[in-house]
Each structure stands twice: as structure tokens, then as C-alpha cells.
Amino acid sequence: MQAPIIRSTIDTCVIAFGLRQVDDAGGQKGSEPPTPPDDNINVVVRVRPLNKRENSLNDGMTLEFPGNGQILVTGLNDVPGMKGTKTKLFSYNVVFEPGATQEDVLQYSGITRLINMAVDGFSSTAFCYGQTGSGKTHTLTGPPHLFTGKKVDIYSEDHGLIFKSFLYLFKVLQEKKECHFILKASFLEIYNEKVIDLLNPGTARKPLAVRWSKKSQRFFVENLFLVDCEELDDLLAVLEEGMKNRAVGAHMMNEHSSRSHTILTVHITSEQQMENGVFITKQGKINFVDLAGSEMTKKTHSEGKTLEEANNINKSLMVLGYCIASLSDHKKKNGHIPYRDSKLTKLLADSLAGNGVTLMIACVSPARSNVTETLNTLRYASRAKRIRNKPIVVMDPREALIISLKREVAALQNENDHLRTALRLSADAIANDPTLNASRINLKTPPNINFDRIAEMEPSELSDLVRHYAQENDALRKENTDLFLQRDLLIRDQELVCRENERLLKKLEDVNTVCVRSPLIGARPTLSAEALNNSVDLDGSNVWTNPLNSSTGSLQNLSGPTNAKNPTDRNGNVENRSKLVESFQKELERRQISKRRNPPKGNSKEKGTLPPIRPQIPTTENIFGADKPEDQQIVADRRRSDASAANAAGRRRQFVLGSRLPNSSPQNVLPRPENINDLFGAKEEPPEYYNDPFGSEISLRDEDNQDEIERKGSAKKEERK
Ligand SMILES: Nc1ncnc2c1ncn2[C@@H]1O[C@H](COP(=O)(O)OP(=O)(O)OP(=O)(O)O)[C@@H](O)[C@H]1O
């Protein structure tokens, strides 16, 4: 059942990379295509095949491989704390199944990316983690027999990741012809919490001190041998020498068990000449870490020296576990991480949560008898996957400063040139401009730097150099500010000119309008005049129409055809308005009378309510509210008095309430009643009086109509009687 799933995984690999043929026979080689690089720790899992002992004991497989970087742990019933859980699924970047070769691991684990990054100046780390006998050393360096003989067989397919990475590294270096590389390597082991130099162990295996470097902000091993490696052979010699010197022991689970953690580091210094002649030096490195395996001392039957080793191994791995757990927890990440609790975590601190890129290869046994340890390793790996690093290129701080200053100078120069072009200032103009020259007075080009000499330069010489660049920077910044100021001034001037332009245009328009109106000058339409014409409401659509009477509601209907272009009327409807107001006043008059006759009943609030504008369809008599003879008398009197009042006022005011009431029903067409003056159509002069809603007459202007008032007064008195 399993084989087809695994084969399909291999197919995916082959299609994606086209690197190898499908292995129909074995089938168990599968791996997933590498995921695109990100800042997380890249975690892959390698499952070794069942070994001879496990096969002889008929120890079955506890792992299944559903594909897509997933791994399924079965048979969990025997695991403490997992009762009731049958299976557990984990997913990683890549899962190497038991059939995967050493070459597969090189190709698909992402180690090649780490090497490329190390060449580019990053700090990278690949470490193997897992229980004892799970295949960590095999993955990193290959089977033990490779280094036990007199001569290492360099053509062996079994070589591990370190050997294959060296080959790949030299290939990359050869391709980068524009750079000059210096390689140095160190190899150490941490045995029983002591750091031993595997390239110079000495007969006494004297331990080295681990110290904190303020400069590089990381731990380092004091007096560690750094071997120059000009050739690939030199690197291979380092690996061989270290493998021979490392502490190895035998126990029940592994005949060649590593009793220490080992760290092989290749330091890569690259020098590259840039276009502007500046040399850039980057310092990258790659660490290969082979951790000793965690072991249950009961299972390994450890005692004496092996037991002490096992305890130390387990202790340092436990601290590593704490660090990984804290780093993967977002809440704890910024808190205390116990790096200092073991030599191993001190030296791995930078790889786990620093500025490097890290690859974790979790090695597991597929045997059912190891299910607890396998589960623990997979859990660790899952946690490590959540850790995020911030990779940075390591450079000499002095060079970095000079380079950044140079870059800033170049950027400022560019910006200034651009500004000058934008301002259209010629070189002559700049030379003649005292303000610009003043800002350039301090501009002195710093002397050329010989980067080869930087290491030998005196501190005073270096500080002079930095000062020069800083000065140039300051001067350029000042010039930059001046240019910006000038640009702002020009923009402001331009704005003023624009505004003046607009003002003049408007003036021209006004003149044009006047010209159009003048009878002496032929009419010439202007844009604004057209706009004005368009705004004239010829069809009365701007006039509010009472919807109750919409059939007769247009102003046009009320007043008949009007000449909208009448020069005395801006809106072309004075006549309309006078008629409108007249009808409005008639309506008010009618209500006044009817109200007097039938005063509103009910509470005061009701009294204050205006009667509806739309009247009842009136008869000739009740238009005036005078259907009784006595009322008709009153109306007749009122008519007379109104007429004489209008005459007495000399028709100075057009609208006097009560004059000329029509015999037909009023047109309920009203202008939009925005204010009282608009309502009466006389903005300049208010009407003389109007009837307030409560029936009292209020005089507004009557100094020249005293008689009229008196007459009204007496008429009122009569009315009351
Ligand atoms: N993928 C593999 N293919 C074939 N053999 C393997 C594989 N992985 C491990 N082995 C074999 O299993 C044995 C134990 O492997 P190895 O020594 O690498 O384990 P280890 O995890 O390094 O153990 P320790 O922590 O005790 O050092 C070795 O003989 C090794 O050759």
C-alpha cells in the first residue's frame, strides 16, 4: 500500500527538478521539492532504514509518508501520555524517506542555499538532531568506515553532507571569478561540557574557553585553530583530521556512537572590487553541527564513563530544547533565552535566533521500538520550524561605514544633479550664483581609499578618512537643502503667477460680458455669458409647484409667455413674480376674512397653526367669506378702504394686502418661500403689513399712509361691534 504513495512523491521530485530517474525497484527514496527560502529555520526530516538488529527483532515501521512533506506516526498507544491517540501527523519542509540517498539530501535539503548565502556573506548553520543511532553522523559525514581506513575514498557515494557541500562550495567559488576568496576552517567538539579543538587536541585534550565578544556580539572559542584552506583537499583534510580525533564510544544502540557534539566551521571571506573601484569585503561562514544523540540510559545500558557522557549530552540537549521552545514561542521570544546554560547553546545562539540562516535536519528511526524518541524529535523539529531569524551580511564595520558614507555621497550628488537639472540651472549659472557657491565652499573630495591598506591603517588615519567623508556628506546635505529651498521659492512664484493669471482672465470675462450688453459693441458671446444664459430658468423648472395643482402650476401658465431676455430682469420673470405675488396676496386676504369670520377653535396651539394654503373650491360669495348680508357689507367696506389706501400711497408699493381680489380661485403657484421678502417679490422694500397667523395686522411701513391706518382702525372697531 505504501509504495505507490512514495513513488508518486518521487515522481513529483523528478518532474520538478529533472535530476534523477524514478526508482521503480526501491521506491523508498522520496523527498519533497524544497520550499522557497524564507526567514524561518528550514526543517527537514530524514528517516533512516530499519537496521539489522531491528529487522532481526521484527521491529515494524511506526512511520508512514503521506507526501507533501508530511510524516504520520502510528502505534502511539504505548507512548506515555498518548493513550487514546492512534496517529499523529507532522509536516516539514522536506521529508527524506528511508530510501533517500546522500545526494538527495544535498540536493533537496536546502543546504546549497545555505552555502550560496555563506559565500554572499551570511552566517549559516546546518545541524543534525535526533536520538542516538538515528543517522545524524551518517547524514553529515557518512558511514564510519569512510574515515577509519588509511586513505579516504573521495569517490565513495556514501560521503555525507559535509563532504558533498565542500565539493559544491568549490564549484560555486570557481564560478565567481570576480571575487577573491579566503577560506579558513575550524573543527571543535563539546565533550562533557568541555570544548576541545579537534584540529589541535594535544595529548592532554586541554579544553578551550568560550567567551563573549563585544565587537561581534556573539560567543567565540578562544585560541581555536583556524586552518587556511586554499584547496579542496585542505578542507577534506580538516574533515578527516577532526573525524579521527572526535570522541566515539559504543553502546547497545550504536557501535560508533558520537559522545560529543561537533561543530565544523568554514569561514569564507570574499573580496570584490566594485564599479567605482571600491573593494567590498564580506565575511560569511557555514557551520556543520553534529549533535550527540539523546539516549535513554536504560536502553543503551550506559554505565561508568558512558553514563557520565550520556548525562552531559542529555543535559545540553535539554537546554537546547528549552532555547528552541522559547524562541518558537512569540510571547517568550523577547524574554530570557537560556543560551548561557550550556556551551552548546552558547555557540549555537547565533544560528538559532541571530542573523544567520539555519537548516535543521531531524534524524529519526522508523522502528516501532523507538516511537517515543521519534515523537520527541518530531516535536522538537516542529517547534524549531516556528523560529524566525533575521539574516544579515557580515562586513567589516569600518568598511561598512565608509561604504555607506560613499553611497550616501553618491546618492546626494545624484539628487543634487537632478535638482539642478529640474531648476534648469546651467553650470555657468551655478558658478555665477553666490548662494550656490557659498554652499559648496566646504565641499572637498576626500582622498581615494586603498582598501588593501585599511587593515594596516592607523586609527587616526582611519578617523581622518571617516571625517573627510562625513564633511563631504554635510556639505552635500547643505547644498541639497539650499536647492530644495530654491525649488520651493520657484514653485511659490509659479503659484502667484498662476493666481494673477486667473484674476486677469476673470477680468477679461467681465469685460466681455459688458461688451456683449453694450448696444454700441456687437454682441460677442463669452463662456461665462453662455453659462449665465444656461442658468436662466426659462421654463420655470426652478419654481416650486404645488403638487396639488400641478396641472396649472407652472409660472408660465400663470403669467403667459414672458420675455426671459428682458434686461431689467436678471431671471427674466419680474412680471411673473408680480402676478404671482398678487395672487398670493389675494389668497392671504381671503383667509384673513374667513378666519375673522370663523375664528379657530380648540387650544392655543391649534390657533397658531396656519390654515392650509389650498383653499376649498370657493363660490363667488365665499371667496370673500361673505355669504351673509352683514358680511357682504363688511367686505364692500373693506374693498373701498383698500382701494383708496392704494391710491393714497400713490402706488409706491405694489403689494397691499386686500387689493384686487380675483373672482376666480387663486393659482396655487408659489415661488420657493425662502424668506419673507422673496415671498412678496420685493427685496428692496418690505411690504407695508401682513397678517400674522393669529389674525392681527402688523404695520411695517406706514409713515406716509396715516389716513389709511386710521380708516382701518375705524373699520376694525365697526367690525368688532
Ligand atoms: N540513511 C541511512 N542509510 C543507511 N544506514 C544508515 C542511515 N542512517 C544511519 N545509518 C546507519 O546507522 C548507524 C547509526 O548511525 P549514526 O552513527 O549516524 O547515528 P547517530 O545518530 O549519529 O548516533 P549517535 O548519536 O549515537 O552518534 C550507522 O551504522 C549508520 O551507518
UniProtKB/TrEMBL annotation:
Nucleotide-binding keyword on record: yes
Q: Could you tell me which residues belong to the region Disordered? A: 547-630, 656-721
Q: Where in the cell is it found?
A: Cytoplasm, Cytoskeleton
Give one Pfam family: Kinesin
Primary localization class, coarse: cytoplasm
Supply the alphabetized keyword list: ATP-binding, Cytoplasm, Cytoskeleton, Microtubule, Motor protein, Nucleotide-binding
What this protein is called in its record is Kinesin-like protein
The species this protein belongs to is: Nesidiocoris tenuis
